[in-house]
């Protein structure tokens, strides 16, 4: 009796080589004498477009004289033998549509390509990767989850080659590994890189023995630091310190240290790791540490005019804008930057004493407010505009003496001390406290509104919770924090609703 066909569904984003992977599968089947049929259905994934590739093939050659098989053109829920997803959310989409069940082998990459909705979120709007992986493990008969994107980058190839290797390594294809490698070699250009990626994917799927947590963290940290502009001794120092941190905290710390290096200098990156250590000592196995490591790096790299000027004049930004505008070689692209500086921005940039003196004068003379801002349009693609912005960016060595730096540093130190205390004494309060710096973002009016939110939340929730006999209402703290993040335009949203007395008085008598 003829066995049912092998049904393979591939979910991939545009540019990831999903079509090439399908071609390899078809070519291998043809060389093995197996009838095969392949189709593709384009779709939209809010990123680079998504396409579902579907192949059905017989597991054994047809006996002589047998009629040609009839294959389905599209996949049917609960009737897919192998699902290969190039990205974690694509795997989630296929799970949601019912293509994964107890009879399915799920092979998916754990890396993420974020959707527009995730990027638009006011805070961390990323889909829960742990939830997707848990669903995959529960619903699929067998799940193979590997970070194929990192393997592809490591070997200088595209993710489709790693996907093909994982497909072969899973042992679900009715032909040997050598047939796959033979077909890849037929591609000619780029075949060696594809073979290296194929071998990495094959090993990851066939060995199936995950690395220990310490090894995985060290490898991940090494991958983060690999291309960073660091001296050998500095890279070794960061590698040693980040790898010693527990679990994923080490990887986040590596990213944070590099962000601080790009923002200021290597000493600033070292300061970041120094500040993280007391939190690790307070709760070495706490999940709050990951959020704290992330928020600490973001806060230390607050956006002042020096940072904004630096980012707006980087070569990669100009190249990205040209690519987005689809400008051809030789075409002129003019970029106009919009600024609205006020007295606060000038004071923030000055040395601490001078900035405070000017700020007091501005208060006395009424120079603050919406009317005290000057709208400026600077063309960063012009010589004058570019030099002006680069001059501001070159003020980075003086940042540590500025008023804004001292203000941010004082508030940050208080947050770190409070968080270390909460991790030891009030873990339920530590979770929203670790996320509290999310309200501090941007510069100018946006940054000032964030400070108002922060001050309200600190006064109403943090201080009472950390007092010796204070009340600890973590739920109310979290609710107020979510309200502040959801309505950033209003400072009042940061304060939880409370009862207010109403006074009634008789109207004045008419005379």
TrEMBL record:
Segments crossing the lipid bilayer: none
Coiled coil: none
Pyruvate/ketoisovalerate oxidoreductase catalytic domain: residues covered: 14-202
Domain DUF6537 residues, every copy: 252-459
One Pfam family matching this protein: DUF6537
Entry's Gene Ontology molecular function annotations: oxidoreductase activity, acting on the aldehyde or oxo group of donors
UniProt organism field: Ramlibacter algicola
Keywords, alphabetical: Oxidoreductase
Organism lineage string: Bacteria, Pseudomonadati, Pseudomonadota, Betaproteobacteria, Burkholderiales
Protein name (record): Indolepyruvate oxidoreductase subunit beta family protein
């Amino acid at each position: 009796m003829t066995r049912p066909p092998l049904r393979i569904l591939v979910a991939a984003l545009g540019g990831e080589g999903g079509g090439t992977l399908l071609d390899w599968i078809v070519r291998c089947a043809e060389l093995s004498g197996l009838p095969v049929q392949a189709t593709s259905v384009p779709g939209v994934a809010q990123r680079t477009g998504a396409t579902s590739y579907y192949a059905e093939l017989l597991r054994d050659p047809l006996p002589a004289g047998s009629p040609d098989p009839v294959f389905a053109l599209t996949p049917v829920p609960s009737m897919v033998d192998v699902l290969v997803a190039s990205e974690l959310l694509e795997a989630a989409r296929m799970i949601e549509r019912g293509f994964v069940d107890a009879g399915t082998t799920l092979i998916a990459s754990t890396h993420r390509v974020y959707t527009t909705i995730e990027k638009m979120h006011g805070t961390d709007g990323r889909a829960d990767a742990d939830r997707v992986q848990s669903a995959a493990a529960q619903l699929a008969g067998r799940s193979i989850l590997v970070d194929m994107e990192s393997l592809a980058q490591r070997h200088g190839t595209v993710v489709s080659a790693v996907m093909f290797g994982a497909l072969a390594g899973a042992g679900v294809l009715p032909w040997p590994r050598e047939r796959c490698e033979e077909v890849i070699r037929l591609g000619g250009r780029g075949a060696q890189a594809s073979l290296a990626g194929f071998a990495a994917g094959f090993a990851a799927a066939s060995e199936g023995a995950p690395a220990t947590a310490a090894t995985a963290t060290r490898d991940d940290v090494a991958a983060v630091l690999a291309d960073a502009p660091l001296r050998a001794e500095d890279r070794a120092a960061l590698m040693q310190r980040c790898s010693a941190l527990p679990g994923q905290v080490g990887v986040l710390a590596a990213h944070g240290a590099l962000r601080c290096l790009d923002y200021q200098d290597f000493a600033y990156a070292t300061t970041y790791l120094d500040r993280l250590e007391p939190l690790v000592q307070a709760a070495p196995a706490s999940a709050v540490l990951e959020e704290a490591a992330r928020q600490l790096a973001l806060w230390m790299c607050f956006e002042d005019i020096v940072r904004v000027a630096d980012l707006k004049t980087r070569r990669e930004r100009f190249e990205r804008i040209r690519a987005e505008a689809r400008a051809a070689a030789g075409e002129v692209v003019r970029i106009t930057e919009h600024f609205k500086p006020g007295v606060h921005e000038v004071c923030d940039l000055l040395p601490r004493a001078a900035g405070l003196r000017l700020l007091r004068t501005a208060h006395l003379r009424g120079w603050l407010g919406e009317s005290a801002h000057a709208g400026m349009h600077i063309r960063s693609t012009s010589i004058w505009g570019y030099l002006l912005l680069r001059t501001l960016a070159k003020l980075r060595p003086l940042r540590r003496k500025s008023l804004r730096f001292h203000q941010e540093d004082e508030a940050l130190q208080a947050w770190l001390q409070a968080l270390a205390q909460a991790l030891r004494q009030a873990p339920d309060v530590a979770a929203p406290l670790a996320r509290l710096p999310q309200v501090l973002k941007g510069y100018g009016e946006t940054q000032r509104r964030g400070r108002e939110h922060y001050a309200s939340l600190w006064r109403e929730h943090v201080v009472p919770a950390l007092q010796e006999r204070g009340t600890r209402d973590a739920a109310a703290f979290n609710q107020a924090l979510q309200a502040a993040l959801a309505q950033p335009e209003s400072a009042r949203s940061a304060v939880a609703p409370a009862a207010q007395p109403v006074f009634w008085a008789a109207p004045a008598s008419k005379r």
